[in-house]
């Protein structure tokens, strides 16, 4: 036996105990451990991993749903206080009338904002609505959106996607709806359009889609005003002029009938 050969005076159990104590306070990757929530949180921070709340939201199969009831006067303040990164689905029911223009700006992520009225005559956005750079989906349902003059009642621009369902839209001197710079508006059941020179004004990569016109009504003198690359898609029950007397084109754009033909 070599002179420098060392024979441990400890038993196997004692050696295991010494190794365990030496590794106390470390996070192992080769074996399961029992850690407290505080230890887990600290470990995530040490290695730059997502915190537990973010991890749970990513792993969840459905986004959390939040239902809120507000007066119209509280609506803008509540929206301004939301995080721009939406990780929840909001159903916001409002009553009363908001006379200032409602603005939604910069929302993105997998969440949604649904703004719900109790009825068209009870829930009114009388200063109109602008959705600006909203990459999270925005929906208005069962409310009145209107302006007395000037810009359109509902404007979607810079990538915003807006749905309207069962809404009364009353435009000013321009259109009831206005879209530009990749803005999208989807029109669904039971909407009415009045007051504007046109039902919809679409320009510069904006897209309006009239999905299901059941229960819709149109009383504007003009139907569609399209220019510089806008697009309007009509379904089988929408007239080619959306109930108006004429359409207008200025500098290019597309109006697509239900049959897939260009108008």
Quick summary of this structure?
With 263 residues, this protein is mostly beta strands.
Describe the protein in words.
- The structure is a single chain.
- This protein is mainly beta and 263 residues long.
- It is 15% helix and 38% strand.
- The strands form two sheets. Strands 1, 2, 4, 5, 7, 8, 10, 11, 13, 14, 16, 17, 19 and 21 form a 14-stranded parallel β-sheet that branches.
- The model is unreliable at 57-61 (pLDDT under 50).
Order of helices and strands: HHHEHEEEEEEEEEEEEEEEEEEEE
Which percent bin holds the helix content?
Answer: 10-25%
Helix count, DSSP H or I runs of 4 or more residues: 4
Low-confidence stretches: 57-61
**What class, by secondary structure content?**
mainly beta
List the keywords.
seven-stranded parallel sheet; mainly beta; 21 strands; 14-stranded parallel sheet; 263 residues; 38% strand; 4 helices
Topology:
Layout: H1 12-22, H2 37-47, H3 52-59, E1 65-71, H4 72-80, E2 89-98, E3 102-105, E4 112-117, E5 123-125, E6 129-132, E7 137-141, E8 144-146, E9 154-157, E10 161-165, E11 168-170, E12 175-180, E13 184-187, E14 192-194, E15 198-203, E16 207-210, E17 217-218, E18 222-227, E19 230-234, E20 246-250, E21 253-256
Parallel strand pairs: 1-2, 2-4, 2-5, 3-6, 4-7, 5-8, 6-9, 7-10, 8-11, 9-12, 10-13, 11-14, 12-15, 13-16, 14-17, 15-18, 16-19, 18-20, 19-21
